[in-house]
Write the structure tokens for this entry.
Amino acid sequence: MKILVCISKAPDTTSKIAFTSGNTSFDENGVQYIVNPYDEWYALVRALELKETLGGNVTIITVGNAVDESIMRKALAIGADDAVRIDAEPKDAYFTAMQIAAFAKNQSFDLVLVGKETINYNGSQVGGMIAEALELPFVSLASKLDVAGDVITLEREIAGGVQVVEVSTPAVISCAKGMAEQRIPNMRGIMAARTRQLTVVPAVEIQELTSYVLYDLPVAKSACKMISPDNMDELVQLLHNEAKVI
């Protein structure tokens, strides 16, 4: 089975977030980047499980510059066979999706997997756009994926239950929690990934549809007031006069 896994970089959750140029640009100084967890833990690991069961090849792809090659090598260390970087700054979801679709169009992938969203933008747009560009079926937020021949059986959590969906290969699937369990790369994989060949392809001419006008940080949390369980009068007074409904 030939599988393409789309990965993206995201700031480590311990990174301090700041903006520059009048809050119009994200300040990358000192930011530690990781593979977007939904791409790594669910999409990539499930792809590797399918390869181990059914045979085949797993290719990871990202849109980015040379700095992003560190996250590509992390994916290789976990077990990906090939790594492709489209040499462009990922300007928006549409630009990113069209770059990936242009690469995948003539590659005959049986399955394209993406994480359900990135933890820095939470857009959940790229997978659906890739599917539309390639004219393939798309199933979002899948928590389970099995393949038998050319039939993909998926489970999605919905309000009040679980929905079971079947589609034929090739297809594009966005992967959510439950799809797979995180894998930790071993030392052998890490050392081998350092010298693996990465494929770099030029970007195609695509005009992004959106631009970022302003970034802002959320309002800082106010101090926490501790009330004695014996002092219900004070608690009621604070709830009436100071508590805010969000």
Q: What stands out?
A: Residues 122 and 164 are 25 Å apart (CA to CA).
